Amino acid sequence: MSGAFLPIVEEFYSLQGEGFHTGKAAYFLRVGGCDVGCHWCDEKRSWDAEAWEMSDVEKIAHRAAQHPAKAVVVTGGEPLMWNLDFLCQLFDSYGIKKFLETSGAYPLSGTWDWICLSPKKHTPPLCDLIDAANELKIIIETEEDFTWAEEQAALVSPACKLWLQPEWGHSKKMMPTMVDYILAHPRWSISLQSHKYMRIP
Prior knowledge:
Layout: E1 5-15, E2 25-31, E3 54-56, H1 57-65, E4 71-75, H2 85-93, E5 97-102, E6 114-117, H3 127-132, E7 135-140, H4 145-153, E8 161-166, H5 171-184, E9 188-190, H6 194-198
Helix pairs in contact: 1-2
């Protein structure tokens, strides 16, 4: 795969709602295709790559460059199902910083300024993604997920930022437990899906 065309679900300019870069403006690129299959995924429409038109990445990069924030968040789906080398080269040519959101289930392609690794229990991340992660974001649905979070935190670099994020459908139930957990384990921070509270994309 040359990566000259990608199945694109949507593109939009908004604020990052989660993790380390919460509140910062960026151009978002949602790539179609995912076989990780999280039952609580709020973007299940992105799973079937064949449902989306293959788009010219040169045009994508040009559109991204038209926005004031020279930053792009590539998310999915699972974007690393595709070769992202060429896409990153194009963003570099426009001076655009590149942020990747991935489960880590596929080999790393592209060069990135920031990688957010959000691994899932049923499809553990590959070693190259663990080593490259700038932040680790674990979705918390039940108390058992704290154990998974600690297992993954033991694998990433000591410099990697650690985030616990409540699964949206269980956030009210789990929030008190998460607050108590982070108070007792302060190397973790809490990540909220603030874009949902702000009612923005």
